[in-house]
């Protein structure tokens, strides 16, 4: 059995709809998946109809930070109808939209010609808008060759078009996940440069050992999980964006036996 416990849809910054993604998961012979969109569980609600050909664990990826570094907290086995969780998602969506418009305005002030009205229309229709969407707009306009170049030039933390935003603390994210009946997992620890030791002191339930950005450090993170008694998780962090690994589902997968305890979790 193979699994992928980290992927994104059009409900956040992925390319494919929840329906399309779950269909692709079945075609890739994935036995268990988790749609973990950024700060939303919209993929699990109407009007989406998820393909029933694979087991789906309801999930979210929450945004936090610690001393200037991005820290993401994955929540699994959630009650996606939990009132506090839905309130968090709604508030974050509103803040993200306001931030996107400010980023667009900064890009325009820097001389990039972008259609603010198009973005406002997308927002009014309920589309998720964030930095990756704006980056793709700039690539489509021909200003940059790829999304990474946009981030490296304009949208990195502290960059010319970057707009900071308020996020929940790590503790607050973990508490929200627990309140919704889920388990909290530290996402892609390999991306943390200076603050990993401090972040690991927070009351997570698990750690994402298997991730493309963790390669070469699996044993290190497995040892942490064993020492702390944490669940081991893993996934591809699939977005479907050209040029971002993996570009297809099924390219980076995790053996079910590697995350067996996680897969056997039973919500109380």
Automatic annotation (TrEMBL):
It comes from the Bacteria. CDD domains: PHP_HisPPase_AMP. InterPro entries: PHP_dom, PHP_domain, Pol/His_phosphatase_N, Pol/histidinol_Pase-like. Residues 3-66 form the Polymerase/histidinol phosphatase N-terminal domain. Pfam families: PHP (PF02811). One of its GO terms (molecular function) is 5'-3' DNA exonuclease activity. SUPFAM superfamilies: PHP domain-like (SSF89550). This is Histidinol phosphatase. It comes from Megasphaera cerevisiae DSM 20462. The lineage of its organism: Bacteria, Bacillati, Bacillota, Negativicutes, Veillonellales.
